[in-house]
Structure formats: structure tokens, C-alpha cells
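Human: Note C-alpha cell order:
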Amino acid sequence: MEFRYLGNSGLKISEITYGNWLTHGSQVENDIATQCVHAALDAGITTFDTADVYANTRAEQVLGDALAGQRRESLEIFTKVYWPTGPRGHNDSGLSRKHILESINGSLRRLGTDYVDLYQAHRFDYETPLEETMQAFADVVRQGKALYIGVSEWTAEQIRAGHALAEDLGVQLISSQPQYNMLWRVIEAEVIPACEELGISQIVWSPIAQGVLTGKYAPGGELPAGSRATDEKGGGAQSIKRYLTDEVLAGVEQLKPIAADLGLSMAQLAVAWVLANDNVASALVGASKPEQVADNVGAAGVKLEPEVLSRIDAVVGNLAVTDPAKTVSPDTRPS
């Protein structure tokens, strides 16, 4: 495992982060989830990402239980706040001071820790003044409940505004967590340049396009049993739907010779591709089986040469979504 600095800070994180969206507390049983976490630890992963909304808080609990007994100082634990939790009352979502200060306490309790290394705004809240949100995050940091703050799926303009307020408040906004992979590149035009200027790193989610870039979905073929595309319970089927077109899947098939030439699995090629971007500090990977962790970790330390990146672009570049306007948050708080 290799480690990278997160933004313009002294915090190092593993370049592969284990995330438990769509898996812990919903898609897989708790004992399998624990095995996956332990496989991540065995592979050298020290950074773990979750959110209070995942499985309506159950994912945080599962992760906390799985990490129990580990040396806390050797881990980097991240979580997020914004989406509805609990009984979904009128103040159970968003980035108001009330919801942030109440949510961090619940997250810490479920995770079994006194602090998180990174506390992230899971979307931008148009119903709350940004000044109120950033003041609440600053207070969480001053209380010692989070060491750093970050955002997820914010536009470049929103990141600039949030960073300026954080700087005025004396706290460090050091990360952005967007979706990013060979097929979804909406952050390249605006978000990445802004973050490079501000000293903010990307922790990218869905680097293998929720499994599509593993090559297991064949164009015109049946959906594999037990795959994310068949997960109606945890929401995986809906989230992966946009990638499951014959045109996209046919393009992915053409990546297989590239991976083979490099001695990599398709998943490793996909993860190595996002890590080739200098602004990416870590790639978030999940797993429903322990062996999937080992496969993804095989991308750590892999350096893709420029000619390989050009071959990949020639195959799937025209299939990629690049419109920066695709980075969006709900106009009103979800309930």
C-alpha cells in the first residue's frame, strides 16, 4: 500500500480507501462485512469511509463494530452528513447547525470513536446559509470531534465559497469526494482545477463505475445473479442503470486487452486510472466479498504510462460524461 497527503495538510491516507456504501447493513450480512473490513486491513488499507445515511445509520454501526479493537491512531475514519436519517423528520437532513451537531454525535457513537479524521458535507444545502454550515463544521473541529472537513459532490463555485469561509474560521477544508471514473469525468473541467488551486484533494467514489468497469456485464447479456445491477433492496440497481447500455458495455469489452497487456485485472486497471490523476488522493472501493478487496488493492502503486492512458481514451473517451453541470445537489432538502 502507498499513502498520499490529503489536500494541503499533513494527513496521509491510503491511496485505496475502503467504503461501505450499498454494502454494509443492507447488501451483505454483517459477518461478511466484517470479513471485508479485515481483508482491507490485512491488505494495508488504513482509510475507511462511510456516511450516516448508508443503510439509515446501520453502515456506520457495522463499520464501527468491524474496526473495534484496532489501534485508533493507525486508522483514518471518514463519515458524512446531509441526507435524511432516523425517522426522517423536518430537521433530520441538510446542513443546518442543528442537524450537523446532532449528527456528528450519532456518528461517533455508532463508529465507537471519540473523533473522525474527516467530516464531510454529503451534498450542498441550498436551504441553509453557507455561513451557518461552515460555522457548525468549524465548531465540530474545535470540539475535537473531527480533525478536518471535506465536501462531496459540490461544484467548483461551491467549493471555492466553502473554502474561503473555512479559511476565515481557521479550519481546514481539504477534500472533495466526487464520482470519478473512465466513464464519468465531470470534475475534470472545473472541480479539479479549482481544487488544485485551493490545496484540496479528491477522494473519488465509484472508480470502477459500480462494477461495470470490471467487465462482468456483457452487452446484450443477462445480468449476473447477485451483482449490484440486481440489488433492488440496497439501491444498487438504480445507481448502476445509466452505465448498462450496449454502447458503453461494448466499449468496456475493448479495455480487456489493455488490462491483459499490463497483467492487471479490469478492476485494477480502472482504479489505477483514477489514481493516475495527481489531484486524486485516494480511490474509494467497496466489496461484497473479501476477495474483491485483494483484487482492488492490486492497483496500489501501479503507474500507467502516458501511452496506456491514450489507449484507454481511444477506447472509452467518447463514451465518458464530461459536462460539469452534472455535479448537482437537490434544490431542497430531501425528506
Q: What stands out?
A: The first helix runs from residue 30 to 42. The longest strand covers residues 76-81. The domain at 11-326 is CATH 3.20.20.100 (TIM Barrel). DSSP finds twelve helices and ten strands in the chain.
